[in-house]
Amino acid sequence: MIIPDPEFKLIRKNLAGLSLVEAWNVIRTKPPQLELTRHYTIILDDGMPLVQPVCFVTDLASIPRLLWAVPGFSPTGPLAYGAIPHDFGYQHGYLLTFRQVGVPYPEPSIRLYEQFPEVFGEFMPIFVGRNQRFFDDLLGGITREATGATVIAGAAECALHRFGDQTWNNYRTKGPAAYNDNSLGLPGLLANGGYAF
Questions:
Q1: Tens digit of pLDDT for each residue in 75-122?
Q2: To 5 degrees, how large is the angle CA 49–CA 50–CA 56?
Q3: CA 20 to 30 Å from 104, out of 32, 68, 70, 192?
Q4: CA separation for the pair 41, 170 (Å, rounded)
């Protein structure tokens, strides 16, 4: 795999209208929201580019603040490389690649693209309908490949396998805007077979 460093900017939280206690709780407990300032493209071993588009909003690794002091477990630590496609996969239920003519994409990818060609544009959805564990394992695999942090990657996979189902299920019920806005305006796969934006 070829895994670049992501480039992003911090999104300032809107704390208007909150009391000082409420504002402090937001700042103290929530991971930072970051927006990609250029495509984050990982090249898989088979040569396929895995793309998270510019303007995608992520909180990187959603690690409880109490654990940020543990070496390697801050949101911007080793898990950040795999957290970006993991967040995208959780939100949408698939990932993206650049659409290429003549490539034999799986039928679920083609069906999804053909329903929303104007929304996907230059991108083709891939890994459509994979389960939560697939995206959890992807985070671990990219983390290991990018940083060599095998213990951290394994701990994150175990935690996500055990505790990530609430977040995964919420996205499969409410769509990509379940926890924040749908920064790219792409459809999300729902558990009932439908789509939400």
A1: 778 999 999 999 999 999 999 999 998 999 999 999 999 999 999 999
A2: 130
A3: 192
A4: 27
